[in-house]
Amino acid sequence: MKALYAQSGGVTSVINASAYGVLDEARKNGLEIYVGINGVTGILKEKFLDANDLDIEFLKYTPAGAFGSCRKKLKNDADVEKLFEIFRKNDIRYFFYNGGNDSMDTAWRLQLEAQKRGYELKVVGVPKTIDNDLPHTDHCPGFGSAAKYIAIAMMEAAFDLRSMYVDSTQVFVMEIMGRHAGWLAASAGLGWINGIGADVILLPEQPFNKDEFLGTVDRVISQKGYCAIAVAEGLKYPDGFFVSDMGFTDSFGNRQLGGVGFTIAGMVRSELGLKTHVAIPDYLQRSGRHIASATDVEEAEMCGRMAVRYALEDNYGVMVTMERVNDEPYQIRYSSVPLNLVAEQTKMLPKDFFDKYAVTDKFFKYALPLIKGEPYPPFRNGLPEYKLLNLK
Amino acid sequence: MKALYAQSGGVTSVINASAYGVLDEARKNGLEIYVGINGVTGILKEKFLDANDLDIEFLKYTPAGAFGSCRKKLKNDADVEKLFEIFRKNDIRYFFYNGGNDSMDTAWRLQLEAQKRGYELKVVGVPKTIDNDLPHTDHCPGFGSAAKYIAIAMMEAAFDLRSMYVDSTQVFVMEIMGRHAGWLAASAGLGWINGIGADVILLPEQPFNKDEFLGTVDRVISQKGYCAIAVAEGLKYPDGFFVSDMGFTDSFGNRQLGGVGFTIAGMVRSELGLKTHVAIPDYLQRSGRHIASATDVEEAEMCGRMAVRYALEDNYGVMVTMERVNDEPYQIRYSSVPLNLVAEQTKMLPKDFFDKYAVTDKFFKYALPLIKGEPYPPFRNGLPEYKLLNLK
């Protein structure tokens, strides 16, 4: 029985730990395991890697998608036809797809089509997203490490700002990933548990009120002299218009959509007359394996293992989930949910996790266990010793 | 005999290690030691902190300026007059100023004025700058840690890009600090020692040729499918015009000067038709103490200690320097240089440290010892346990 694993969607610093979990568990259980290169994009070209004898230790500490990822959505019947042709030809009977909302849609579609075609295929989704927006799971592998990265980045930047504000920059803005949900932006407040963090957090869940925001910054400045701001890229006005719309067209007449961080800083600069600095960590926040969370790495691996176990128990057409059993001491239980309940759904930050521009105790209780522990990668020459697979 | 220590200019993740060196060495040698809050800006307001019994352990691992920094230049005679009044009143006889080019100018001015006035004052500069552009020293405390941060950020981003390029983003651009010299941007190439780094590095030392640059990106893309670009904020056209000039005015008629990273990405997008991502680490690169270099932390502390020793040996009016004795094994010797030889000078990246868009073996030999070792800060709640002093 052949099994196929593949990665899909935006990568994380621990998606390879899930790959490790799937591959190791599959091999232990006697499955013949292959990896599809670049998700369904590569599978459609029969780009497979034989993982049965592959040295997989490096997956535990190497960030991003070691086997390549893809952005492809399965919208096209010809693609589905081609995929089943390839599955059949290679006798693929298990498919473990590691991704977020869109990828679970692909997984669900394949499971349905297999049933329709009478082709025996067991599909199990392995959750992955720094956005933490998959429903029916307490949280997602990838989020804890990205949250830790953001929390630390904001702490360090706030220390910097605090050094400089007396006669220089008074406002620091960090633009954080999250087009729909504010889980990551909220994490910029976690540093307060150790004494410093974001003073103002702008979430997609809360419609942006410019005057109120500027009033708040002004108040923070008059109280402490400086203000550290976290803004989610998906921040919207009450009418749903993205704040990141830069408000002008370029010389080619194209509407400029750009860094919401610069838009926010521009407001502060022009309306409050304060000097600003802007950081955009971009990829750094989702591939910062050097400062990953140990909880996240362990859970990512376990989600991979559970996917294999569920498939072998004939629990398929599902995605692996985590249920929170207890906050302190932190305890979770692995479970599963039908793929169709996850596909293309988005879990927003609950209303009681934030209060205007700050995060609440409930958010701290929720998020702090997820960022715990420092599973440093090995270093050589003063730099992480990540490993590159040849994918050609 | 009273001694005063203060921090000045843009901060680093190890400037507090220098503070630790100065304070500890001063106390061991029986000096009464005070700290000026926010450099000369606070000293002018007599904002002193008695550091004789202060618990200073936290300085070894807390980033940014624990005592506040400033951007003030001493251009004004009234300020100089006021400073000497305050020095005299408090019987300050040693002044240790921790900063970069501008700060050494201030230190030099104070040393000169003291002599002119017949006021016995021993001024010693402690070098500090992530830009690494102070002359007469092999390198500067602060650079090694920032270089390590940049090297790792670029490695991790390149892993991310490599996962995504097949059907999504093919070009990643990281904007790196350095208005004059390209030391930090060059560090984005260091990851190659472990297999991955920046494919194209744009330095202020090399006038920007747009066509040649785009041709190079095009070639890299056709060879490997993706291209990771590092660009220094000070990148200039051959006529000295900053590339970061965005080429348009805002609705208020102001010329937009903005992220050179976005400018470069815009060229790639519009001329080569490739999807891009842009990261701007900003403050994160200079305060990222969580991934500092052990060599840098140790040397920062020693530079602080040497400043005190030199002053006590009557070697003053100088800045502490480091001379490279050997590359492998790495060995340096501490020395000193008259402040006037450092003040307002800039050390550029030597021509044999780069070749077009890449760094040379000479740069690796120079920089690799400086990023070695991982002196992790203590962690609590999954986050660094940095300490905040009350400066009010």
Provide a descriptive summary of the structure in words.
Chains A, B: It catalyses: beta-D-fructose 6-phosphate + diphosphate = beta-D-fructose 1,6-bisphosphate + phosphate + H(+). Chains A, B: This is Pyrophosphate--fructose 6-phosphate 1-phosphotransferase. Chains A, B: The record marks 102 as: Important for catalytic activity and substrate specificity. Two copies of one chain form a homodimer. With 392 residues, chain A is an alpha/beta fold. The first copy, chain A, is 34% helix and 20% strand. Chain A has eleven helices and 17 strands. A seven-stranded mixed sheet of chain A has the order 3-2-1-4-5-12-13, sandwiched between helices. In chain A, strands 7-8-6-11 form a four-stranded parallel sheet, sandwiched between helices. The mean pLDDT of chain A is 95. At the A-B interface, helix 5, strand 11, helix 9, strand 16 and strand 17 of A face helix 5, strand 11, helix 9, strand 16 and strand 17 of B.
Key descriptive features of the protein:
homodimer; Rossmann fold; alpha/beta; seven-stranded mixed sheet; four-stranded parallel sheet; 392 residues; 17 strands; 2 domains
Helix content of chain A: 25-40%
Q: What pattern of helices and strands is seen along the backbone of chain A?
A: EHEHEHEHEHEHEHEEEHEHHEEEEHEE
Oligomer type? homodimer
Radius of gyration of chain A, CA atoms, in whole angstroms? 22 Å
The CATH class of the largest domain in chain A is: Alpha Beta
Q: Quickly give the structural class of chain A.
A: alpha/beta
Proportion of residues in β-strands of chain A: 15-25%
**Tell me about the biggest sheet of chain A?**
7 strands, mixed
Counted beta strands of chain A: 17
CATH topology of the largest domain in chain A: Rossmann fold
Q: What integer is the average pLDDT of chain A?
A: 95
Read across the widest sheet of chain A, the strand sequence of neighbours is 3-2-1-4-5-12-13
Q: Architecture of the largest domain in chain A, CATH level 2?
A: 3-Layer(aba) Sandwich
Main location (chains A, B): cytoplasm
Pfam families (chains A, B): PFK
Subunit structure (chains A, B): Homodimer.
Family (chains A, B): Belongs to the phosphofructokinase type A (PFKA) family. PPi-dependent PFK group II subfamily. Clade 'B2' sub-subfamily.
